[in-house]
Design brief:
- It is a single chain.
- The chain is α/β, with parallel strands linked by helices and 447 residues long.
- It has 16 helices and 17 strands.
- The strands form 5 sheets. It has a 6-stranded parallel sheet with strand order 9-2-10-11-14-17, sandwiched between helices.
- A hairpin with a 5-residue loop joins strand 5 (93-99) and strand 6 (105-111).
- Helix 4 (141-147) packs across helix 16 (424-433).
- The longest helix has 22 residues, at 166-187.
């Protein structure tokens, strides 16, 4: 059944174990204007490859799960079933020393010894989380189907685990620059960029680093869908305690069994991207009231400017190795302070129909047990509506470019963080916000 007809459904059933969308990818390669699609956390398929000469084993797996070349790992249902432990372990990151573009040595991340990881190539890697498998997990597929008859589509894929590693962030900026300039040369027109969730941070940070003049020459508009650049209050819990429940998008108040959380957390906590989703200022903008309490304990409260202390307290009080990304936090905060209001028209799509975590409470100062949700606010189950509205208002006030807010119909699927991206409403409106093509060129035109 086509994913477009399934709305916000999590999975779809393919008729065969193969890539049956060759015609769609061909169609999406045409078009006079290019649109770059930038995914969020955990919403791009990842492939892994092991160097057999240095391979020492990364966990239990059935023989049928072994692969000599690039192997679909995130999020392969087959891999989860036949080699769950290896699937988790092989995606772990380790802290290493790296060098910034200016030669400054800084803390960075690397894969495990003998392991290579890359985003699944092409649109296939963002259309579904497990391209080619029988039971598929669609993500960007409905939007790709809606836009392919009109625009040239290309993914802005990246290793979402490593966003927040400043060395890798610089690589992402350069990769986006190269892609945008290529598409601009190919079509002769500025490109549109769509970002979802954490991908909105990559988009706005990259454009800020590339500068106003470059942006206005090469980019016509950007669309930020459920932007997580403002930070997600629920991440204060997911960061070191229950990342699995957050990753699979469980409704507030629901949780996975502790053994499942423990299993997933071993890998998830090594990704600096988890720290990049904590509430923080975006450039000069504080998207939350200064006195809003995100975390309460018996002895203190943590507000927007206390997130650094919160990360430090987690590192000091939780078992050794539980918060391996703590040292990335100051660098992430410094880089996010460089984000400026976009220099081109900006469309923000968001939701407000779901009770979304806005505060959690620990029963003990030792911070060991998973905190309880103690307050909620209207939002999309991940990001609060008020924080997005505050960001949009500040950007509009700065006057660098028009900022437009778009809220979907009061249908909970249309207003959920990931469901919004796959909704029929969003697919229609995404086409409407892009700068129209030349007269007589609403469909495909020769390059």
């Amino acid at each position: 059944k086509p994913a477009r007809e399934m709305g916000a459904s999590l999975v779809s059933l393919n008729c065969c174990y193969c890539n049956g969308n060759a015609a769609l990818w061909d169609e999406a390669a045409l078009g006079r204007k290019s649109v770059i699609l930038v995914h969020g956390m955990a919403s791009c398929a990842l492939q892994t490859k092991e160097d057999q000469s240095t391979y020492h084993g990364h966990g239990c797996a059935l023989p049928c799960s072994n692969a000599m070349g690039w192997d679909l790992t995130w999020l392969s249902i087959e891999e989860v079933v036949t080699g769950a432990q290896r699937c988790r372990n092989i995606l772990e990151l380790r802290n290493v020393m790296g060098v910034r573009k200016d030669g400054t040595p800084v803390l960075s991340t690397g894969n495990l010894e003998g392991v290579s990881v890359r985003p699944y190539p092409g649109l296939e890697g963002i259309a579904r989380l497990n391209p080619g498998e029988l039971i598929e997990v669609p993500v960007w597929l409905p939007l790709i189907e809606a836009m392919a008859p009109v625009y040239r589509l290309t993914p802005g894929s990246y290793d979402w685990r490593r966003w927040g590693d400043v060395v890798y962030m610089e690589e992402c900026v350069e990769a986006l620059r190269v892609k945008v300039e290529h598409e601009h040369r190919l079509t002769g027109r500025p490109v549109a960029i769509f970002g979802h969730s954490m991908g909105t941070s990559l988009v706005t940070y990259s454009l800020s680093m590339l500068g106003t003049e470059w942006t206005r020459v090469h980019v016509s508009e950007i669309a930020l869908v459920a932007p997580a650049s403002v930070g997600s209050p629920k991440q204060v819990s997911a960061y070191a305690h229950n990342p699995a429940s957050i990753l699979v998008g469980l409704a507030d108040g629901m949780s996975l069994p502790d053994p499942v959380e423990d299993f997933v957390r071993t890998c998830a906590i090594t990704a600096p991207s988890t720290a990049s989703l904590l509430p923080m200022r975006v450039g000069v903008v504080s998207c939350f009231p200064a006195d809003h309490v995100f975390v309460k304990t018996p002895s203190r409260s943590y507000m927007i400017d206390d997130m650094g202390h919160y990360v430090q307290d987690l590192q000091q009080r939780l078992p050794a190795g539980r918060v391996p990304t703590a040292k990335f936090w100051p660098m992430i905060q410094e880089e996010f302070h460089k984000i400026k209001a976009p220099a081109v028209p900006t469309h923000i799509f968001y939701g407000s129909e779901h009770a979304t975590v806005s505060q959690v409470t620990f029963r003990s100062d030792d911070l060991l047990a998973t905190p309880e949700v103690s307050a909620t606010a209207p939002g999309d189950l991940t990001v609060t509506a008020a924080s997005i509205e505050a960001l949009a208002a500040s950007w509009a006030k700065q006057g660098r470019a028009p900022v437009h807010l778009h809220m979907g119909p009061r249908n909970k699927d249309c207003q959920e963080h990931l469901g919004m991206l796959k909704s029929e409403w969003f697919c229609r409106h995404a086409l409407a916000v892009i700068e129209p093509g030349p007269p007589g060129c609403n469909g495909h035109c020769a390059h």
